[in-house]
Design goal:
Elements lengths: L11 E5 L4 E7 L6 E6 L4 H16 L8 E5 L5 H18 L3 E4 L1 H10 L4 E10 L2 E10 L1 E4 L4 E4 H9 L7 E4 L1 H5 L1 H7 L4 E2 L9 H9 L17 H4 L1 H7 L4 H12 L1
Protein name: tRNA (Adenosine(37)-N6)-threonylcarbamoyltransferase complex dimerization subunit type 1 TsaB
Keywords: Transferase
Organism: Solidesulfovibrio carbinolicus
Length: 256
């Protein structure tokens, strides 16, 4: 990614499709921000473009007038990430607006840090009995205490509990609610933030977008684990009378 930070004084557009609900946000830090949500389970491709158009119209800005375009690159829904990044890249190139990638877990932690001090652990649902997890120290600034990981729930609960060593422990994200008993068993004194913290706030999105690295090259997705199709490729291939090697070859051919 080219280093074009910060973007110009124009408004910033942020796309977040890592969860079943889509979020599109437009504005600048400290100014009025348009922040809109749409349910899109299984319909990301058909819902995203109209939502972007609606937000831009409400913000009173045309695509070419944007100062920058940021897209949350994961971890989260594989389909949502792919659709959002492709849509963002098309808009970036078509409107000649630089593009940046944002990571979801730091955005959740930054949203929680508006209320929390101490250790903030962002935890989101990853399917297949796993969660995505990253721990942060919130003490004025927000500092990561490790890289994001995809973990089994029991390991994630133990990892989250380790955060109590640096101060009060705050847990945020939809993965906490889904496996609440496991996390409370490992860290009974942890504060679990409610569902209103399960999506990044407009302030967190704008603050991250205004300091991101922008350019005109594709943003790399952040997946952290193989997709369900990749994990089940042997079974899928056998059902179709193929070897894994043949299935992988067909996938590569289809992507060329």
């Amino acid at each position: 990614m080219d280093k074009l930070t910060p973007p110009g004084s124009g408004k910033l557009l942020v796309i977040n499709a890592v969860a079943p609900a889509l979020w599109v946000t437009c504005g600048r830090p400290g100014q009025d921000v348009v922040h809109r949500r749409a349910e899109a389970t299984g319909r990301c491709a058909e819902v995203l473009a109209p939502l972007i158009a609606e937000v831009l119209a409400e913000a009173g800005v045309r695509p070419a007038e944007l100062g920058g375009l940021a897209c949350v690159r994961g971890p989260g829904s594989f389909t949502g990430i792919r659709v959002a990044l492709a849509t963002a890249l098309g808009l970036s190139l078509g409107a000649n607006v630089p593009m940046a990638g944002l990571d979801h877990l730091p955005l959740l932690a930054a949203t929680a840090a508006a209320k929390a001090t101490g250790a903030v652990v962002a935890i989101t649902h990853a399917r297949a009995g796993q969660v995505y997890l990253q721990s942060f120290l919130a003490d004025g600034d927000l500092m990561p205490m490790g890289a994001p990981k995809a973990l089994a729930v029991a390991e994630a609960a133990a990892r989250a509990a380790d955060g109590a060593a640096v101060g009060p422990l705050w847990l945020v994200g939809d993965g906490v609610a889904r496996y609440r008993d496991a996390f409370l068993a490992a860290a009974p004194l942890a504060v679990i933030l409610g569902p209103e913290f399960d999506s990044p706030s407009p302030a967190a999105l704008m603050a991250a977008a205004v300091t991101a690295d922008y350019g005109f090259t594709p943003v790399e997705p952040l997946y952290l684990r193989p997709s369900d199709a990749e994990e089940n490729l042997d079974a899928i291939a056998a059902h179709r009378g193929l070897t894994r090697h043949d299935a992988e070859a067909r996938i590569r051919q289809a992507m060329e």
